[in-house]
Design a protein that fits this description.
With 203 residues, the chain is an alpha/beta fold. Helices cover 26% and strands 29% of the residues. It contains 5 helices and 10 strands; from the N terminus they run ββββββαβαβαββαα. α2 links the parallel β7 and β8.
């Protein structure tokens, strides 16, 4: 596993005592805590149970992505670092000056990545998980000097949010159940967004 991550794993050894693995971890390993996933993600906020395999300290951390620093606790919020490339792609597909809505914005990675690479946009993230929303506000403060666009976050169920106007681009980073929110997306969409969506469906 360490080799696959590009980490020098020399000195990382373990031996078995019955059905217990006892590990020796060299100081050169660049992490302080190892969490073991227990079960699948469940519930509206897709939380997963973890067990500390070894290490020390809190489960809160700072993740670095595209020059941004994202604060989070993976035991409390959903965040997938493997989507980093997709977030950059969405930023590249966006245009300067757009109004962009990010539904299910979590700790803020999509709005912040777009805000870093696009100029003059107005980007709104909506998140129902209060813990993730609080992290998004912290992450906005941490990264505000790197942003070229205005980014704002709102706490609430996107189906119950009103008075935010229309948007030129709508991002739904939700792995399952997107079809349940298409009507909501259309309610917030500008004519420009609807025309683009129609073109994409016909090509």
């Amino acid at each position: 596993m360490l080799k696959e991550m590009g980490i020098d794993h020399r000195g990382f050894t373990y031996y078995l005592v019955g059905d217990i693995a006892i590990a020796k971890v060299p100081e050169s390993i660049p992490f302080r805590l190892v969490l073991v996933e227990r079960g699948k993600r469940v519930g509206e906020f897709r939380r997963r149970e973890y067990e500390i395999a070894f290490g020390y300290g809190m489960t809160e951390t700072i993740h670095r992505e595209h020059g941004l620093r994202l604060k989070l606790d993976p035991t409390e919020v959903f965040f997938d670092p493997k989507l980093s490339r997709e977030r950059r792609k969405i930023a590249e597909l966006s245009s300067d000056g757009e109004r962009i809505l990010v539904m299910f914005s979590g700790i803020g990675p999509y709005p912040l990545v777009i805000g870093k690479f696009r100029k003059g946009c107005e980007i709104l993230g909506i998140e129902a998980n209060e813990i993730a929303y609080r992290y998004s506000l912290e992450n906005l403060e941490i990264n505000k000097k790197l942003l070229k666009s205005k980014v704002k976050f709102v706490l609430g169920d996107v189906r119950e949010v009103h008075g935010i106007g229309e948007f030129d681009r709508i991002v739904m980073p939700r792995p399952r159940g997107k079809e349940d929110f298409l009507e909501v997306a259309l309610r917030f969409s500008s004519e420009k967004w609807r025309n683009r969506a129609q073109e994409e469906r016909t090509h």
